[in-house]
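Hey, weird one. I pasted the Oxidoreductase molybdopterin-binding domain-containing protein sequence into the form twice and got a warning about non-standard characters only the second time. First submission, copied straight from the form history:
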Amino acid sequence: MRDDPRLPSTPGFWRSPLRGPWFTSVLGLVLLVGITVLFVTGLVSYAAYNPDLSPVNDKTPDKGLLGFYLFAWPTHPHWLYRLNQGVHVTLGITLIPVLLAKLWSVVPRLFTLPPARSLAHALERISLLLLVGGGLFEFVTGVLNVQLDYVFPGSFYPLHFYGAWVFFAAFVAHACLKLPAALRALRHLREEPGGGHLRDEPGSDLVSPRPAAPTVSRRGALWFVGGGSLLLFVTTVGQSLGGPLRRTALLAPHGGRDPGSGPNGFQINKTAAYAGISASETSAEAWRLVVTGRTGTVRLSRTDLLQLPLHSSALPIACVEGWSTSDQWWRGVRLRDLAALVGYDRDDPPDVFVESLQRHGAFRRAALRANQVADPRSLLALFVNGEELSPDHGHPARVIVPAAPGVLNTKWVARLTFGDL
């Protein structure tokens, strides 16, 4: 039965002539570079939330030593988070065909018997299982978060964060084991006369002992995989670049044309209706901004805020899902000027805790570091592109901070608490 070609554990079961060390090695080297960039940009994205600043910013509170690399997120350049997250999401989607092709190329090894021939072989098989399972988990959860507002059970942040560490550990172990063989396979690249197909190292467990007739060369298969990746890239990247290319972002949840016209006609994440914001509580008569700090508490109406010095900043909004707006022209009161109202030096303000009227959804509260408060471009915005904020963009007031993730640019702000968090 072990030699029965009808069983997937038998080499003769897998008959595609495309499988072989060279084909697998090319895909593996592409993933080696791509997944390393994905992992680094993912870690950087998590650091942008300043998770060690306040529990409300930290969506993975039990990360322990895995947070060793965290650093205070800068505000320069103002497009930093937009670039980082755009690369992370766009590259992740672009690599899907490469990942699937790589898994297809090595699927015979998943059925190899016996499961382990030695301790070294057992470790390799375990790393392979973690690599395959972790890779599928990370890509699936990432795509669900981008495309479907995340329908996977549980919280996206800890699942994706811990899954990334498990996957990358297996990835590094597997790469260390296989990199010499991959480089050797590429060095031995040779063309067979007349067929345009590639000859592999003899004895490879990826080469079928009874291959079917070829219908495409391995190079042709690589072109097919590359074409799929290019198609996904073109239909995704516009969500980050903006402008006319946004129309090509067919696979992006905020792709296509701007959702409206006029000064407020640019992308939003959550609407006022979704957040449970009513017009009565944001009216000029009802709404007050509560600012608390060293010298006490002040309550400011929108009219009061308009009497303070107003400043302008050209800043984008960039979201964890990878979409972003182009730079919008915001106008409002500097956060550091509001800190000065409650007893702090505007050139050396403290951290601030921001609370929203929002009733539904995550990040109803958020914390900003002192360097974000001190940046002269950080505003409590009252206007955008020359017009009052619309309800969906945070009327009567919202925070806008350079280089910060979109969810930290709190909308429908009700309270600012300056000082130790």
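That's the output from the first submission. The warning seems to come from a hidden character in my clipboard, not from the data itself. Residues 389 and 418 are 24 Å apart (CA to CA).
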